[in-house]
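Our preliminary data section would be incomplete without showing what the modeling component actually yields. Below, a chain of 206 amino acids is followed by its predicted structure, encoded as tokens that our downstream tools consume directly.
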Amino acid sequence: MLQVELWLGSWELPNVPFVNHVAPYVKASYMNYWCNNIKREEIDRIPNVPNYFGSLIERLWGAGLQKQLTKDHPLISLYRNVYWMTHPYQPKAIKRYLATASRVLRYVQDKCIQNEIPVHHWLVLLQQPDYIIEYLRLREKLGQATRTTINYLQVLKPLLFHAMTSFPYDDPTFPIVDGVPDHKVIDGFKYTLDQLLKAFPEIKKK
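Predicted structure:
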């Protein structure tokens, strides 16, 4: 966006006297501040236009996209156990991966509550592909790079994979039918993964 600075000096035009009509009343710094605020207000009044003032993290916090599930949430706990087995010497990486998944799932949980979808079990959170896609698109709209979106998806893909394979046996509360995990629930996870692959085809190459 073009930014204009107020010039209060002389233009040094030949045979033209310099008279500063503004200085007695207002400083240039104030005028620039006022002009900048007007631009902010104009952008805020336009729907569906991202606000590029401030840092990305500030915009994400302001939009409520940085909230997370509790650290002891059952699904986060299950995923943490997986990471401790696969990345036993990378605690910082584990924390980062879990935070990524937790932010997405917190948004999904909030949307479910908002739309009166009962969240009686963590499996509900992984059966809402539209909310997951919506969350990632909102982050991109606020300025998140595509590369970061891919990183989010690379955390979500194995989460869905484990939800279809190991989590049903690790969690005694998972629905079991005739001695095996409920295939309808598993199919719901598969559907979510399929929708993510369709919405973000670039992750198929990763």
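The chain has one domain: 56-203. Helices lie at 28-44, 56-62, 74-86, 91-114, 129-141, 146-164, 167-170, 183-199. Preliminary results of this kind motivate Aim 1 of the renewal.
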